[in-house]
Amino acid sequence: xxxxTDKSFCEExxxxxxxxxxxxxxxxxKNKQGKELIYFCGNSLGLQPKKTKEYIIQExxxxxxxxxxxxxxxxxxWLPYHEMLSTSYSKLIGAKNSEVIAMNTLTVNLxxxxxxxxxxxxxxxxxxxxxxxxxxxxYAVESQIKxxxxxxxxxxxxxxxxxxxxxxxxxxxxKIIKENSNEIALILIGGVNYYTGQLFDMQxxxxxxxxxxxxxxxxxAHAIGNVKLELNKWNVDxxxxxxxxxxxxxxxxxxxxxxNERFHNVELPRFTGWWGHNKKERFLMxxxxxxxKSAEGWQLSNPPIFSLAPVFASLSIxxxxxxxxxxxxxxxxxxxxxxxxxxxxxKNIEIIDVPMRGCQLSIRVKNYDKKLFNNLTxxxxxxxWREPDVIRxxxxxxxxxxxxxxxxxxxxxxxx
Length: 416
Ligand SMILES: *Cc1c(COP(=O)(O)O)cnc(C)c1O
Known about the structure:
There is one protein chain. The protein has helices at residues 7-16, 52-66, 70-73, 81-93, 106-117, 135-147, 152-155, 170-179, 202-211, 231-234, 305-321, 323-344, 371-378, 402-415, and strands spanning 38-39, 100-102, 126-130, 156-159, 184-190, 215-219, 238-241, 256-259, 349-351, 361-365, 381-382, 384-386, 390-393. The protein is of the alpha/beta class and 416 residues long. It has two domains: 7-36 and 323-415, Aspartate Aminotransferase, domain 1, CATH 3.90.1150.10; 56-320, 3-Layer(aba) Sandwich (Aspartate Aminotransferase, domain 2), CATH 3.40.640. Bound molecules: pyridoxal-5'-phosphate. Residues 105-107, 134, 136-137, 190, 194, 219, 221-222, 242 line the site of pyridoxal-5'-phosphate.
């Protein structure tokens, strides 16, 4: 598409946008004067759907009305409540219902998955990860390595860009995998890197990993609800994600995990709890653990229904919109914003160049100068600053408009 820096162009794009009504399903934060902010921080904490409160109150009320009977007789019975979410989750990541489970939070799920999928041996004990992976992932991975009696500085292989580049090349990933295949036990990569916004070729990485006898898992924190995912087709072994970023389910929302169906009937090491026990026999209170033969078998506790309710509320919106249409708008919106920013032609900023991305643009600011970010904030733009020198902006297709992109551009141009 040919873009233009005319204001009329963004208005035209908004008018033609078939998803424009979705914005009305969300609360958009405002400044003190009541003017809507430009919210480009949905990659950090997504906005609140207007229906979320209703979903939570439903469960609060059903607890009042039914007490323990709510497990069976609530409007949305609590016993199978998490199963309703599996259908929506599975559509978002391209999996079967049996392969996904809403539970815990991301880092917790990462640990649970590593208990099952990181099985280091004497010589094959290393983990391949991005050098600038999200710190929590590094902490989790290092602690798992130490837990197994290895040293993290010996066991971590970190992927990094070539000198002078800012993204990791697919061919470099494949080369490292092949060269170290005898030593790597696990590949764990963020599907979309939180810092640069780089989208990795998860299908290829999985294929090359498997060809070299390596387990492959992904952290989808910045990928779910943002990019097209086909985990079952790609044959990924496991994945984890959180739901408070693009999935708009609120701070610290219940997260999710994917376990490929290939592992549902095999004995894997795992940490267990009663909610992972065979559902038909759960209340027989037998003391011999028999796992549910699906991703549900990794559950520990009975789930916090009041915390699942916001996820349910949000996923009902994703069910309606569908990822394909969402991604179409996402590409148009992000490309438009990229075009506008590049048209400014100022040496103090530069969009981090990546071969594939979702909706996030990471803007590197010269001389590590945070002033620009602070000025953007004062001018009604909600973005975030990541040390040492990056402003991340995410035009989210569910609730951001082409006019938001244009207004951001005008503000940025003025401030520069
Ligand atoms: C946001 C994010 C997390 C956060 O972990 P929590 O356990 O939800 O606090 C972890 N990993 C990545 C890649 C993230 O982007």
